[in-house]
């Protein structure tokens, strides 16, 4: 979506508030002065090469020591920030929830346990854990078995009351319904609702074995697909996968043997049947018996807890969110903020109120801010480069700076910046990527030893070609800062 980068979308009062707030915050120990050239020549050249006009790029470079280079271009324009919006969600969460905050997933017995038989339902109650992976469910099941339960005579009931009921269409955003990044949030999100299909070639038989992780009860996979010669190329397209029946995937094409082993991550089941199929498979593998059904419901008041899984702390969770730009984890965190702030089931509206209230309490007024789901996977979320820079400046001066900065990808080393080279090894930078949007935001340690906030957002149909401009900006700050 092309966004015209101007202040015409804001009223005069709002424009003045944004500019005044940015000016007051950026002043710090000494007022920053824009560089003589608003956009460095090397960055301008890269923008021209990509056929991106200067007005489509918003940039802020802000020294954190009070001295050094500084610049700003289109800094107050409301922009679609793509996944750099996760910085707002994760930093607010660190402050509102605390870095040691954890999520709990409970197993409760709703019935009498006679010898090793649960004569009733087993309730699994979630709290919105963003990283309840299949290994955690395996541990929870083993704790249930360790409690003495061998057979469940009732149903497995999924209590999702931590979040308000959610209606989510995974294909609505971009028509890619099977892509895991489009998975929606859920109070009992398991394994990001993703299934990993592995393709393992056998050169002797010229066949390719298909394996699934996790194994789902009642899923029927083809044992092999046909192997062929040729370049790897678009191997997913050549497989001609058909997931219309998600429990019986079909591959009508072939797999290039030259690809070696590959994995294909898909999301093809709704949350409840996915959880139920994974639980049934793991329960059977543990030696347990269960012939009932999986369904959603509330834990009875007299249900007693028999097993518990507690997540990693928030400081560790936001590393996964920011380094790998995990959308569904960010949405889980966003809803958790709303739930904890209101002491009611989490919802996007409650999360937005909580985050706006916290920002205002810290003097981080952002009149142009538009929050949708907190992940940046949105066509309507908006923030200005100036507001994002002020948030980063605030974070750097706070007690939670180490936890926050370490959650960002290190350029040339890990996460979404692993293959990038602007200020390699010397910058912690969150990326944003959508059709018509490219964004970077974070911190650069310049060769001089000075630290800088750097934000760059491009909204333009040619944004797909903007990476060299952003890499050039990071390198320019590193060399000249």
Describe this structure in words.
The chain is built from 12 helices and 19 strands. With 481 residues, it is α/β, with parallel strands linked by helices. The chain starts with 11 loop residues before the first helix and ends with a helix.
Using the CA coordinates, give the radius of gyration: 25 Å
What's the rounded overall pLDDT mean? Answer: 92
What share of the residues lie within helices? 25-40%
Report the CATH architecture of the largest domain. Answer: 3-Layer(aba) Sandwich
| Named CATH topology of the largest domain | Beta-lactamase
Number of helices: 12
The tally of structural domains comes to: 3
How many strand segments?
19
Largest sheet: 7 strands, mixed
CATH superfamily name of the largest domain?
A: DD-peptidase/beta-lactamase superfamily
* SSE-based structural type: alpha/beta
End-to-end distance: 33 Å
What portion of the residues fall into strands of 2 or more residues? 15-25%
CATH classification, class level of the largest domain: Alpha Beta
């Amino acid at each position: 979506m092309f966004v015209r980068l101007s202040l015409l979308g804001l009223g005069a009062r709002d424009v003045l508030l944004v500019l005044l707030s940015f000016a007051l915050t950026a002043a710090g120990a000494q007022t920053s002065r824009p560089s003589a050239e608003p956009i460095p020549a090397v960055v301008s050249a890269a923008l021209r090469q990509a056929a991106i006009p200067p007005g489509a790029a918003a940039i802020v470079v802000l020294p954190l020591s009070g001295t050094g280079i500084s610049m700003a271009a289109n800094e107050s324009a409301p922009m679609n920030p793509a996944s750099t919006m996760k910085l707002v969600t994760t930093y607010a969460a660190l402050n509102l929830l605390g870095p040691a905050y954890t999520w709990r997933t409970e197993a409760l017995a709703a019935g009498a346990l006679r010898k090793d038989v649960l004569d009733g339902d087993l309730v699994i109650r979630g709290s919105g854990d963003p990283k309840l992976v299949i290994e955690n469910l395996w541990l929870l099941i083993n704790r249930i078995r360790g409690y003495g339960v061998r057979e469940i005579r009732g149903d497995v009931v999924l209590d999702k009351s931590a979040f308000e009921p959610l209606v989510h269409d995974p294909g609505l955003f971009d028509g890619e319904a099977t892509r895991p990044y489009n998975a929606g949030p859920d109070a009992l999100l398991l394994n990001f609702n993703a299934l990993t299909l592995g393709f393992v070639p056998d050169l002797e038989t010229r066949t390719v074995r298909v394996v699934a992780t996790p194994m789902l009860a009642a899923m029927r996979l083809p044992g092999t697909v046909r192997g062929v010669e040729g370049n790897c190329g678009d191997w997913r397209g050549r497989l001609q996968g058909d997931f219309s029946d998600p429990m019986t995937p079909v591959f009508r094409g072939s797999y290039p043997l030259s690809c070696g082993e590959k994995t294909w991550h898909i999301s093809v089941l709704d949350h409840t049947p996915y959880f139920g199929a994974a639980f049934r498979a793991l329960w059977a593998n543990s030696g347990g018996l269960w012939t009932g059904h999986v369904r959603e419901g509330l834990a009875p008041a007299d249900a007693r807890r028999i097993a518990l899984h507690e997540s990693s702390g928030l400081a560790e969770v936001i590393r996964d969110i920011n380094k790998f730009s995990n959308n569904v984890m960010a949405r889980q965190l966003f809803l958790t903020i709303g739930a904890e702030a209101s002491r009611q089931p989490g919802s996007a509206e409650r999360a937005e109120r909580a985050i706006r209230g916290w920002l205002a309490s810290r003097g981080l007024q952002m009149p142009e801010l538009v929050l949708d789901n907190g992940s940046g996977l949105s066509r309507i979320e908006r923030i200005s480069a100036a507001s994002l820079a002020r948030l980063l400046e605030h974070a750097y001066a706070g007690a939670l700076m180490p936890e926050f900065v370490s959650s960002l990808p290190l350029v040339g080393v890990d996460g979404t910046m692993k293959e990038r080279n602007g200020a390699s090894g010397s910058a912690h930078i969150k990326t944003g990527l959508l059709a018509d949007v490219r964004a970077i935001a974070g911190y650069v340690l310049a060769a001089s030893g000075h630290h800088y906030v750097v934000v760059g957002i491009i909204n333009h149909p040619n944004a797909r070609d903007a990476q060299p401009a952003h890499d050039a900006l990071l390198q320019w700050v590193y060399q000249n800062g």
